[in-house]
Each structure stands twice: as structure tokens, then as C-alpha cells.
Amino acid sequence: MEEKLWILEDLNMMYIRQIALSLQDSDIQKKIDHEIRMRDGACKLLAACSQRDQALEAAKSLQTCSTRIMAYMSELQRMKEAQVMQKATRRSSDAGPLDDRLPCKGKVAISDLRIPLMWKDTEYFKNKGELHRCAVFCLLQLGGEIFDTDMVIVDRTLTDICFDNTIVFGEAGPGFELRVELYSCCSEDDYSAGSTPRKLASKLSSSLGRSAGKKLRAAMEPGPCSPVSNGGAAPLLLPVPSVPGPKYHLLAHTTLSLSHVQDSFRTHDLTISEECSYWLPLYGSMCCRLAAQPQCMTQQMMSGCLKVKQCGGDPQSWTKVYAVLKGSSLFCYHQQEDLEANIEPAFTIAVNKETRIRASEKDPQSKVQNICISNQYGGEEVTHTLTTDSREDTHRWMEAFWQHFYDMSQWKQCCDDLMKIELPSPRKPAPVMPKQGSLYHEMGKVFCCRITLCLLRFVLCSHPITTTGEVTGLGFHVNYYIIFSCI
């Protein structure tokens, strides 16, 4: 059966590669191949794990790799569908003019993730028995980008599940959907039970009857190797052969969008899975800080030389500046070198959602249209007039302004003020714990040390020590500092 699964998966991968070749996109194919190799390595590591923490981390890696593979394949399928739709649109004779204006991309960051727990009084205050521990982590997906948090061990002594990771998605659009999934696994399972032979499992399930046997087989099958849900769509990747080890369950999930972005700590509702709701007493909410930085707020959208004149001034008093359109302002420098030297701009013109921009009448002498920028300051309208050296430059500046206004209208509250995003710190490697032997092994080491100390005391008390630090009188020389170093 396992050989058939491998053959079918190879055929499936050939189909995926053909799609990637038809789209001329080798990057996504390389990502899929990389995650498949990582998944195979995680399967081998999981099968060889004997320690609890190692098995939990391996199962977590396996779950993450499987989710990334599914996301990349779904992205490939969407690209193929978009290509087909684009060809169909071109062939349509009655298709009108298409607006190819697209909003800019941006960064979306989620941090300070907190999930409150709702323990009963009998569990949190009065229960003094053995602690029931669960390993939990979060998977966060935005488009084709998938990240995972660190794994946290949870028991009844915790009132909140805290993830200190700052996760940044670099290629998000204003219509993004950030899916957050909470997974859990009981950390006290006996992982050796996963190595039960399939023949024995089959005999047990057949002797228990159809209904009970089906539950037994489902319980003995490892979960991380099965494909994750893809929003109700049919899975594109077949499951890999079964591997013994811990099984993670989806406890809860939620989806965040642009309307949830706020430059502060905020609470969001969680959808709890009914099948696994008994694992942890989730309160039904999640707290986090969700921030966004559109490229129109952080990058130069347009720059170049302009002539600026303020309304009401001398008609001939034009000021030559080097202008930069970025964020909610048009920064005007005396020269380009001032920008490169980080010198403050000579003056700034506001360009925000309340700003009005229009093209004035053509100058009868230069035949060039001017650009008028109007803002309200203290109840009064202030207008700045911009002009360029050519009609082509004027057209480029007008197009940059319209694109800038379109970006701000799509990103909405994210363009009011620049939100702060802290770069995620690199993950620290897991501490290497010393290998612990059995009780008899530890007792044996203590016993050997005591024998060595007794022997050393006998030698030092019974025989003279030379000035060179050597014990004599036994027919040989013993360096006592070597004995001390070996204890």
C-alpha cells in the first residue's frame, strides 16, 4: 500500500511540475521541492525520535511543511486559473477597457499573541494531582507565506498561552486574509505505542467490530502526515506513509483582515473546533497587535525636479526643488544631494485623503499644464502650484498622484499614520540538555567517585610526597593532581 501511495504521489508531482512549466514559474516549484524534502526528513526524524521534546518538534515541523506544500500548490492552481481567465478575456470581442490599476503591496505584522484559558476552580486552585500538559503552537498563513510560532508547553498553572514571536508578512495586499490556527498535542503520550505493527492493529480492530475498530484505526494513525484542510477544497497532495509519533489537533482558528488592523493591542474572536475542544479550556478569544505598513507609506513613490509656487505669491517667484512623494507628504529639498545627506527638507506639502489635486489650464507660452495641490490649514485653503519641464514629466507626476490616492483609499486607516513594526529577532536554538542516564547509572558514578577518594586518602596518608608532587613508595610514581582532575 505504501508503494502505491509513493507512485501516485510521484504522478501527482509530475502534474504539478507541468503546471509550473506552463506558467514559467520555477521559483514556486523550487519551494515545493524544498518543502517535500523537508517533510521527508521530518518523517525520518519523527520515526527515529525517542525523546518527548524531539518528537513534538519533529511533528510540528511535519505539520508546517505539509501546510506549506498545500499553500504553494493552491497558489500554483490559482495562477493557472488566472492565466486561463486572462486568455478568455482577451478573446472576448465585447470586452471593454480594463482598469489595470493595482494597489501597492505592504508589510503585515502580528505580535504579542495571547490566548486566554478558562480553567475551572477545581482544576486551577484545588487540583494538586499530576499536571496534564499539552504542547501548542500556531500556524499563520497569508497567501503563500506560512510561519509557525515557537512551541509552548501548557498546563493548569498557566492562565494565558503567550507567543512572543513577531511574524512579518512582506508581500500582502490590502485585501489580505491572515489565517491563524492553534494546534495542540498531549505531551504525555507514550510514543512507543505508535510503532504497533499494522497487522496487530488490523486484528484488534476486526475483533472489536466495525464501529469500534474504525475508531481504533483512526486513533492509531498519525495525524501530521495527512494533508491539512484547504478550505474545503480537495487535497492536491497524497498523504505520505504513516509514521509513528505524536499527533497534533486543530483546536481553534480565526481569520484577520484589513479591518482588524490597529496600532494597539486588540481582542479577536476564535472559532473553536468541536472535536478537540476538550483538550484545553479556551476562552474563545485571542489578543494580539496587528499592524500594517503599505509601501506607499515607507517607499518613494515618485521623485524628480519640480518648480513650486504658493498661491498668492509673486507670479514669477518659482522655487526649484527636488521633490519626493512618500507617505502623506511631498518633501521638497533644495537639491538631490540634501536627500542623500539626510538633511531636513526645505518645506513639505501635505498629500493625504483630504488633499485635492487638479491639472490647471495650459500655459500659453510653455504649453505645459500645471498641477495644483490644495489643502485646508486652519479653515483656509492653501494651494501650491507645481510645474515641470515637459508634458511627459507632468503626466508622470499626475499618474503618481492618482496611484498614491488609490493606494491610500485601499489601505484605509493604515495610511493615517505610519504604524511601527519591530523586526523579528532570530530564533534562539533549543538548549541542548545533558543526556540523563538511569538511576543505576547515576548511582554507579557516585560509587566510583567515593572509591577513588578513599584510595587517594589512603595513598596520601601512607606514603611520603616528594617536592615534585609525586607519591613514592609503591614501586611507581603517581601524580596526585592527575587523580584530582579525574574525580
Automatic annotation (TrEMBL):
REM-1 domain span: 10-85
Superkingdom per UniProt: Eukaryota
Domain PH: 299-406
Family annotation (Pfam families): Anillin, PH
Keywords (A to Z) from UniProt: Coiled coil
The keyword Cell division belongs to this UniProt entry's keyword annotation: no
Cytoplasm recorded as keyword: no
GO cellular component: actomyosin contractile ring
Gene3D superfamilies the UniProt entry points to: Pleckstrin-homology domain (PH domain)/Phosphotyrosine-binding domain (PTB)
GO BP field: actomyosin contractile ring assembly; mitotic cytokinesis; septin ring organization; signal transduction
Entry's transmembrane regions: none
PANTHER family: ANILLIN/RHOTEKIN RTKN (PTHR21538), RHOTEKIN (PTHR21538:SF19)
Record protein name field: Rhotekin
Protein's gene: rtkna
